[in-house]
Amino acid sequence: MTEFTRSRKNLSAMPATPATIKHVEALRTKLREHDYRYYVLAQPAIADEEYDRLMRELTELEVKYPELASTDSPTQRVGGQPTKEFATVSHAVPMLSLSNTYSEEELQDFDRRVRSLLGKEPFRYVCELKFDGAAVSLVYREGVIVRGATRGDGVQGDDITQNLKTIRSIPLRVFGKKKGLTDFEVRGEVYMEREDFRRMNEERELAGEKTFINPRNSAAGTLKLQDSKVVATRPLRFMAYYLRAERFKLQSHFDNLKLLRGLGFPVSTQARLCRSIGEVTAYWKAWEERREELPYDIDGVVVKVDLLRQQERLGSIAKSPRWAIAFKFAARKATTTLKGITLQVGRVGTITPVAELEPVFVGGSTVSRATLHNEDYIRDLDIRTGDTVVVEKGGDVIPKVSAVLAERREAGSKRFVMPKTCPVCSSKIFRPPEEANYYCENSECPAQVKGRIEHFAHRGAMDIEGLGEAIVDQLVGLGLVQNYTDLYKLAGKKKQLLELDRWGEKSVENLLNAIEESKKKPFARVLFAMGIRHVGAGVARLVVSRFTSIDQLMEAPKEELEQVQGIGPRIAESIERFFSESHNRKIVQKLREAKVQLEEKQKKGGNNASLAGKTFVLTGTLAGFSREEARQKIEAMGGKVTSSVSKKTDYVVVGEEAGSKLEKARELGVQTLDEKAFVRLVQ
């Protein structure tokens, strides 16, 4: 019996004395300091044995006096009970993705745009290394971590708090203090150092376990494990690069990095202030040459305008900020032999040629398949089976064949000819005018069925929780569903579902409830979920703003579709073609029979019924709506949502923990609405 087990069996019935409480806090403080010195500063002050002794003593005291247990104690890093699924959380401010560039010319264009938008106002850039890992968000209240989440789609992510708490370079309670800065959000990258990754793979190989491909994929995959105890065994690290606080005045990104370091977060020491785009380019060139000196992988440099007020003034477009850009390094390359060319069928029938390669190590992983993009790409490079080819990773991520060493070609090789039929279902494939890709016309093609169902159930579409890839494979494989409309018939097959392997009463009930709940999703989400080529979530909203029912849309000629701002000939033709096919019209009818929303509900009533021409800004957290739901309500009534407050803003909707946008609204005299007033407006 261990000392720890004995202490559990002899729990004291007496409460902890003041001296014991003081000693426990002293132990926690010591351990936090040593974690900080070891994992952040890389300057350990005591031997591992002494650290383990302190941790053992604290653990035993917390077991003996359960009332002293604390979520921010260093003992909480070992992981807890496995979770069945991750809850979805909304980011208070979207985690935007950065625009990428690989050329100095495009970087110069970025600089010109910034200068044009800021006028004669002086500014400077902050340059940081772009860590090759997984982006996460950490939320702190009173200096204690309360939530950690993945980036997800930028608007919503998965709650992986327990997994992130196992990473020792993430403070459970901030180490330093800044007066007034108690509630804040920190964003950063979770990654693995190359040596840690190599050692972990060696241990797994010795144990007969599957090894991982590269540090980045390993880090991202580990964060999604449902057993935090396993996560605790992986050598994950964290690097902070962003600080946000609603109730504390922040002024500069570079100063924020200093604040983060003072709070005990690991922050890259390579960040630099640059006063010209020439200095930025020099920084990029230096690190492109020195990248292998680092113990971790980087794939470029991130360039940001320093002052936060200037960032807000520059704003964002689509999913990327105008005030930042990722200046990526050139792709890594290797040569190998092309063994053959196969065709891959995507979820909406896109036919993509794929290179089957002699395995080669490039950009941190072994590559055996690479994209060939389309028929024109193969023809332009004259790629043939048996050729020696150059393989590279665009942005060190996606492998592609970029060149052919024709001088090594053997005699008798034959040019590639695109097949006439789908490799999966043998149906005829077609290539639309002015497009590079071929498509399979059969939407019942087995290769498409699963992908279309997964897309239909996706969070941004019908949001059917629990209907992941493995479940879809099972349902399709057993013939319970043949297309996504069959999901709405599963309620009548409950008995068959209960007979399936690993399915219980609760899991079946949860899935059926999620499917039933999806019927309430608005028409724009349904249209996106249907999987029409070129119709993403944004395009679907544009279409629905003009054609408010599926019947109107099905009868609309492409000329009328093109009149919608943002809808071009290619999108219009794709929509017209989709609804001209009898199979797809039958799909619509089945959705109608399932009582799915195929019409945009129009608000009617008093003076606030129409928001046409009104511009809104959302700030803070609303209790009754996510940001996405509030935006949808505004747009459904003709309004528009923007990210920054200006004189042209009509309303600022104010939730809890509203910050600088509320101050800006007051300065400009823009009308503000609390949540109750907002609800009255959109009812």
Keywords, please?
single chain; D-amino Acid Aminotransferase, Chain A, domain 1; disordered N terminus; 36% helix; Helix Hairpins; OB fold (Dihydrolipoamide Acetyltransferase, E2P); 24 strands; 683 residues
Tell me about this structure.
This protein is α+β, with helices and mostly antiparallel strands and 683 residues long. It has 6 domains: 3-78, Orthogonal Bundle (Helix Hairpins), CATH 1.10.287; 100-328, D-amino Acid Aminotransferase, Chain A, domain 1 (2-Layer Sandwich), CATH 3.30.470; 333-430, OB fold (Dihydrolipoamide Acetyltransferase, E2P) (Beta Barrel); 446-518, 5' to 3' exonuclease, C-terminal subdomain (DNA polymerase, domain 1, Orthogonal Bundle), CATH 1.10.150.20; 523-593, 5' to 3' exonuclease, C-terminal subdomain (DNA polymerase, domain 1, Orthogonal Bundle), CATH 1.10.150; 607-682, Rossmann fold (3-Layer(aba) Sandwich). 36% of the residues lie in helices and 19% in strands. The chain is built from 25 helices and 24 strands. The strands form 6 sheets. Strands 14, 15, 16, 17, 18, 19 and 20 form a 7-stranded antiparallel sheet that branches. A 5-stranded mixed sheet has the order 2-13-10-3-9. α1 runs parallel beside α3 (48-64), α13 packs across α14 (469-477) and α17 packs across α18. The longest helix is centred in the N-terminal third of the chain and has 23 residues, at 18-40. The chain is globular, with a radius of gyration of 28 Å. 32% of the residues are buried. Mean pLDDT is 85; it is low at 1-12 and 603-609.
